[in-house]
Amino acid sequence: MPELPEVEALTRFLDGRIGGRIVERCELAAFAALKTVEPPLSSLVGRRARSCIRRGKYLCFELDDRWLVVHLARGGWIRWRDPLPPERGRPGRGPLALRVGFAPGAGEGVSPTGSDGEAPVGFDVTEAGTEKRLALWVVARPEEVEGLRTLGVEPLDPAFDVDCLARLMAGAAGNVKTVLASQSVIAGIGNAYSDEILHLARLSPYKPARTLTPDEVARLHGAVVSTLTDAVSRAVGQDAAALKGDKKRAMRVHGRTGQACPECGDVVREVSFATKSLQYCATCQTAGKPLADRRLSRLLK
Ligand SMILES: [Zn+2]
């Protein structure tokens, strides 16, 4: 699933390409993905792209006085097309969810990106896999999207300091892993980066959030900021297609079950859930004690 660093890199990439361009085509291929009825998607045609910004894991395209908001869910991605294929985006078995095309020619204040500056360009919103969770909204303001309106603090915002994190953890129910990935508490962190952050902070994912000591909160804050800052700087400026692969390569424990912990050499362990799993190092994070894998314990009974 794309998380804050990948979505940040994608929005910066797109923001640098769409500004000033006029929407010429807007073709929905995955009908279930569109969550709004009014204003219609077709009302975006003829509007001028102003910006593309990120909030949490949402991409927000400003098209004059309308916004197209995209949540990529687990298997979603946005592919810049230069040139954009002339074929209409149609419902089918492929990954295409939405095709947006811009009128030929560069936008205002934008240097041409096409080979001759005249080729029609645009982007495809795609979703891989069978689990279709990608979501699109057409709204007057991004805050009309409920999940976006209720987002918590942005962890790369200066307002997110140690005191802020201490207040959030003290007021949260649940373990630190769950709270870190709760979008209404801190925006943009998901399963992968929460594993990485907790490993760097040397904290058990199961530690109740409200029991963190001031020293642990300070460590966690440092780990959140450095993990995300490093990942954003790696991701920005990369070819968008290469982003996902690089994300995996740079992970220390997430997705590395059975491999050696880069800090201590112990084996990276896993706890599995219905549709996902978390990875951690027992030596670094849980005083050497492996966490109970509930699924495995159930199977063994
Ligand atoms: Zn370790």
Architecture overview:
The chain is of the alpha+beta class and 301 residues long. Helix content is 28%, strand content 20%. The chain is built from nine helices and ten strands. It has a four-stranded antiparallel sheet with strand order 1-6-7-5, with helices on one face. Strands 2-3-4-8 form a four-stranded antiparallel sheet, with helices on one face. α3 crosses α6. The longest helix is centred in the C-terminal third of the chain and has 22 residues, at 214-235. The chain is elongated, with a radius of gyration of 21 Å. Residues 112-116 have low confidence and may be disordered. The chain binds zinc ion.
Strand order within the widest beta sheet: 1-6-7-5
Overall mean confidence score, pLDDT: 92
Let me know the largest β-sheet. Answer: 4 strands, antiparallel
Radius of gyration: 21 Å
Helix content: 25-40%
Strand content: 15-25%
**Could you tell me which ligands this complex binds, including any ions or cofactors?**
zinc ion
Number of strands: 10
Shape field:
elongated
Separate helix tally: 9
Distance between the termini: 33 Å
How does the helix and strand content classify structurally?
alpha+beta
Order of helices and strands: HEEEEEEEEHHHHHHEEHH
* Unreliable stretches: 112-116
